[in-house]
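[Help] Beginner question about ligand-bound structures

Sorry if this is basic. My supervisor gave me a protein sequence and a SMILES string for copper (II) ion and asked me to "get the holo structure". I don't really know what that means in practice or what format the answer should be in. Inputs are pasted below exactly as I got them.
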Amino acid sequence: MPRAAALALLLASATACANDVPEANLGRGLLPEHITTQGGVVQSLWNGAWIAALATGVVVIALIVWACLFHTKRKAKAELPPQVRYNLPIEMLYTLVPLVMVSVFFFFTARDSEVLTADSKNPDVTVKVEAFQWSWRFTTTVQGKDTKPVTGMPVSDYKQGPQLVLPVNKKIRFELNSDDVIHSFWVPEMLFKRDVIPGIPEDSPGRFFEVDTLNKPGVYAGRCAELCGVDHSRMLFSVKLVPQAEFDQYIATNQAGSAQ
Ligand SMILES: [Cu+2]
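Answer (accepted):
No worries, everyone starts somewhere. Holo just means with the ligand present. The predicted complex, written as structure tokens, is below.
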């Protein structure tokens, strides 16, 4: 039964794809559970933005309903109601209120952007991320010592992609490099992604970002989030968060050779 076999294969591959989609619950505004301190900042900004947007929606809908119910043309009177023009208080109100709203959004966005792009200059672990068509190469540096680079190839399951091992409760710096086209480094559970753009200067803020990992050991899927060619969707990788002792052991057994 080739059709049944094909169907079984299709179902198997469908489930294989589904397992790298993080669980998104309504309580977190459909975002996955974050694994970095910075992810927590994004989560609060997201929640706040939704609360503000929903509150605005409630006020606007209430005003529309109020106008419909209490300000309709009376049947008995055929003429137009008094026409009001140049109502200064009203015009002030609908100029100032949106200005205040945009300013509030801007304030919180600017404040959080500062946190998300902060440069501590003394991370515990530095990861050189090299994006290429179509996978990733990760080189981890701890206390000035490099580990052997982990190089991947295009895969259809993130567990078969290159794996980046990182310790929990540590400050990690990602340095982004690309020699071909624009890619985007994205671990959904970090609630953050950053384009990897070829040719921008070494010390440019666009070349790196830092995260503080939380105590949430596990294996998390990562992907390229910028359409970069035919195998873009197969640029999958994983991040494995491990306790410090396990990380130390990983570093000890994967030390780059002295020839480097
Ligand atoms: Cu890519």
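A couple of things worth pointing out: DSSP finds four helices and eleven strands in the chain. Residues 131, 183, 224, 226, 228, 232, 235 surround copper (II) ion (CB under 6 Å). Feel free to follow up in the thread.
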